[in-house]
Amino acid sequence: MEDVTDPSFRFICKQFGADVMYTEFIASEGLIRDASKSIKKLDIFDYERPIGIQIYGHQMDSMVEAARIAEAAKPDLIDLNFGCPVRKIATRGAGAGMLCNVPLMTALTSAVVRTVKLPVTVKTRLGWDECNKNIVDIAEKLQDTGIKAITIHGRTRAQLYKGSADWTLIGEVKKNPRMKIPVIGNGDIISPKSAEIAFNRYGVDGIMIGRGAVGHPWIFREIKHYLETGELLPDLTIAEKVSLAKIQLQKSIEWKGIPVGIYEMRRHLSNYFKGLPDFKETRLRLVTSLDPSEINSILECIIDKYH
Asked: Are residues 31 and 91 in the same domain?
């Protein structure tokens, strides 16, 4: 979720009831080198709490030092990303690449747990590929390091984000009598009903929503309402979606400036209005303009066209 779960997006998600949020993941080497982009990702705000800072890397010393730096930013927890499948990260042993070196994964996690006073959590995947879905064993080993929770994405690294998430093994981890820490499920939570299945069929302690919230940050409110009442909320109106898009755009620009704040808002803008008929031309204008005033005018035109 790099360049996605920034403060502008987190602000919107919090308004709709996200209980715990995480920063974009931050490279441990970048933090140590004091790289400006990495340091900027440490920005967190009191209204976001509880919030975790997520770091990744594959070098023991670097990850330990990065955890110290992250702790100094005063989050509520530190999260270790052992799940990112992106080639340039995984092939050098970081992110999901750690699934190929479980001894290092557990040693590194243990070192971070010993170093910081904050709770440490881990996010990972079912395994490296179809022949190595060893998450039940990995989860036990990670629990033994002293982490306070584990989040499991229901795909292997080899799958990237293709196909459907397989929650069967997530359920097996949760049912394992040795597991005492919370098990959080992740993958393909895109509706209230998929959230209900995650809890009722697989028994997880919580769910994590990533891509399902992009362009749909009100999903948190929809899920909570459905789980409490059994009723599906009506979709937001076009005017409500335009209002949210404007707020997020403004906050993105305030935090990142122009043009970066607009570049990194584009995927959100196109997803806010996904499914509208005859939207191709409008979408093209939305994701090519670098003028905030023009973008806001285009958003107003969407209300006029689709009200």
From this structure: yes
Bridge-partner residues for 246, per DSSP?
A: none
Do residues 290 and 265 make contact, with C-beta atoms less than 8 angstroms apart? no
**CA 247, chain centre distance (Å):** 20
Regarding whether 219 and 99 lie in a shared domain, the answer is yes
Residue 307 confidence (pLDDT): 74
Q: For 126-148, what is the mean pLDDT?
A: 96
CB neighbour list of residue 24: distance below 8 Å, 6 or more residues apart: 1, 2, 3, 4, 5, 6, 41, 54
- Return the sign of the alpha-carbon dihedral for residues 58, 62, 64, 69: negative
Q: Which domain holds residue 245?
A: 238-306
Distance CA 149, CA 142 (A): 9
Vertex 114 angle, CA 6 and 116, to 5°: 35
Q: Measured between alpha carbons, how far is 304 from 307 in angstroms, rounded to an integer?
A: 6
Whether residue 160 is found in the same domain as residue 57 = yes
Query: Nearest-CA neighbor of 235 among 249, 251, 218, 252?
Result: 218
| Alpha-carbon gap, residue 209 to 190, rounded angstroms | 8
Active site residues: 84
Chain segment 52-72, per-residue pLDDT in tens: 999 999 999 999 999 999 999
Q: What are 255-277's pLDDT values in tens digits?
A: 999 999 999 999 999 899 998 99
Asked whether the beta carbons of 152 and 202 are under 8 A apart, the reply is no
> What CA–CA distance (Å, rounded) separates 187 from 125?
10
**What mean pLDDT is predicted for residues 2-13?**
90
